[in-house]
Amino acid sequence: MFDVLSGLLLPSRCVGCPDPQGPLCARCRPALDRCHRHRPDPEPPGLPPLAVAAAYAGPARTAILAYKERSRRDLSRVLGAALAVAVAEVLADRLRPAAVVRLVPVPSAASAARRRGGQHVDRLAAMAARVLRRSGVKVGVAAVLRVRSGPSDSAELTAAERSRAAVGKFEADLARLRGCGSEPGLWIVVDDIVTTGSTLAAACRALGRREVAVAGAAAVAATQRWHGVFESRYGGSSSSTVKPGGSPLIRVESSASSRRW
Ligand SMILES: [Zn+2]
């Protein structure tokens, strides 16, 4: 409770370093500004095109953990903005002004959500949608997935255990899907962290069972245990980074911006 109150009421220090300017100082913010396409290796079957805003390391990792596990709600703006950039990246060649985008948050198990004071990815998705709307995108959050069964929190599992546990983990709620309307749209599954990609693939599978075709997936950060596209993009090229003016179709403020929403 104190964490929640302090996150809401007290001036915050940077979560990534001792800088007094929180929640993430100007020096730490660029860690969330490394948007790139990402493929886990090995790649789980059914994983759609995927973009992430950052490597799950350093200040980006600290910020996500503080937001998720220590109720640092004041990080939702910067993390939501980073997620918005990743969504824009994965849709960069498909977004048209009239296109309707639906962000589908990956849900946590009920016990984990209770511990964290709610579905933290829902809040990130809402913030990302807000940022994207300000950029002219017609977008909404479609929280249509729910956790079917399995361990309370996959963070405690090994990668192999997580992959096995993720299969059939989610189901898409038919009533909530109907509540999204019949207008065709671009469905994007969103999450905070990508590790093996099996959770995202399971979420896509659950939507597929309801005949919803997923156009892509986006997350705030991806773990670095995988190699290939991720390392080459993260280490060198910044051509996939979506920054103000960086995309021909959509402009999204990057997380490093000092602008506040
Ligand atoms: Zn800092």
List the helices and strands and how they pair.
Layout: H1 2-9, E1 36-37, E2 50-55, H2 58-69, H3 76-90, E3 100-105, H4 110-116, H5 120-134, E4 138-141, E5 145-147, H6 159-166, E6 170-172, H7 174-179, E7 186-194, H8 198-209, E8 214-222, H9 229-235
Parallel strand pairs: 2-8, 3-4, 3-7, 7-8
Antiparallel strand pairs: 1-2, 5-6
The structure holds zinc ion.
Residues 14, 16-17, 19, 25, 27-28 line the site of zinc ion.
Description of the molecule:
The protein is of the alpha/beta class and 261 residues long. It has one domain (33-235): Rossmann fold. The chain is built from nine helices and eight strands. It has helices spanning 2-9, 58-69, 76-90, 110-116, 120-134, 159-166, 174-179, 198-209, 229-235, and strands spanning 36-37, 50-55, 100-105, 138-141, 145-147, 170-172, 186-194, 214-222. The strands form two sheets. The chain has a six-stranded mixed beta sheet with strand order 1-2-8-7-3-4, with helices on both faces. A two-stranded antiparallel sheet has the order 5-6. It binds zinc ion. Zinc ion binds next to loops.
Strand proportion, as a percent range, falls in: 15-25%
Count of DSSP strands = 8
Number of helices: 9
Bound molecules: zinc ion
Using the CA coordinates, give the radius of gyration: 17 Å
Quickly give the CATH architecture.
3-Layer(aba) Sandwich
Terminal CA distance = 25 Å
Compute the average pLDDT.
82
List keywords for this structure.
alpha/beta; binds zinc ion; 8 strands; disordered C terminus; 261 residues; two-stranded antiparallel ribbon
